[in-house]
Amino acid sequence: MHFLQAALLASSLFVAHASVLPITPKHTPRTLSKRAEPNTGDDFPEDETPVPNRLNKIETAFKDAIEMTSVVLSLIETDETIYPHYFDSADREEITRIFRDLNNNDEGHEMLGNFLVQTTDTDNLCGDQALAYSGDFNTDQPFIVICPRAFNKKAIGDLEGKDRGDEDATDFYAGCAEGGGDIGDNVSFHFNTLGMTLLHEYMHYDLMIQATFDGTATSIIDDPDGNPGYGSVAVYDRLPKQSARKNADSYAYYAAEVYWSLICQKEFQAPREGVDDADPDCGDQVCET
């Protein structure tokens, strides 16, 4: 089945009004079990203003990351349109398994509850292009640092204190150009919601993902084999497939393209170098997560 035909079929379950922006998916929001939701500490005060505050945004992003994996799982086994731009067909079974385990029946992998998500820049890595980074991912207490510019990234699901009908709603919610949003005809940095940033970081957690290719345990990293692995241009048809399967941004952009193809009801064109990877949140450069 052609991908867009499959997406149209799936949209009867997932989409309310693809022409309205910000898009509000009609399907039931994923409710993560308490143990499957990462922890936030004192870095995210509940009473921070204005609302939606950083805690509101990160809690929505937790759900958005799992939401994208759910849409991927509805289409990946028959996807011959988007998948080949990112991964080799020989790796489909293991890549599907990775998304399935992370999704865990829409509840999120139970080991997500091991994460501490913080804003304190422990390792001083929140540079000019960084959205987030993770550490201690071979332990049972990994952490993710969310850098300040990451909070400029938009949401998929509902944010507390921000109605989708508000005049400034498009500053907070990602959406399709047809409804006034930023997501146009090409794969681009506009796909990168805060939830997608988290999805990228989750891929680094070896104890949870446990990728195996060609019978060998493999970590999902950044810039594998010395190849640039960040951003839409790098991951779309450019990164060798042997490297792509162990590149975190390949998983994140694949999930995002599948999701927005469904929501926007279109097939996206290839990203344009210097345009679709020039993210203003990172000084018109490729953002790194």
| Count, helices | 8
Which consecutive residue ranges, at least 5 long each, have pLDDT under 50?
A: 12-29
Q: How many domains would you count in the coordinates?
A: 1
Radius of gyration: 17 Å
What would your notes on this structure say?
The radius of gyration is 17 Å and the shape is globular. It has helices spanning 3-14, 54-75, 92-103, 194-202, 206-209, 232-235, 241-244, 248-264, and strands at 39-40, 116-118, 132-135, 143-146, 211-213, 216-218. Strand 3 (132-135) and strand 4 (143-146) form a beta hairpin. The protein has one domain (3-282): Collagenase (Catalytic Domain), CATH 3.40.390.10. Helix 2 (54-75) crosses helix 3 and helix 2 (54-75) crosses helix 4 (194-202). With 289 residues, it is of the alpha/beta class. The strands form two sheets. The chain has a four-stranded mixed β-sheet, covered by helices on one side. It has a two-stranded antiparallel sheet with strand order 5-6.
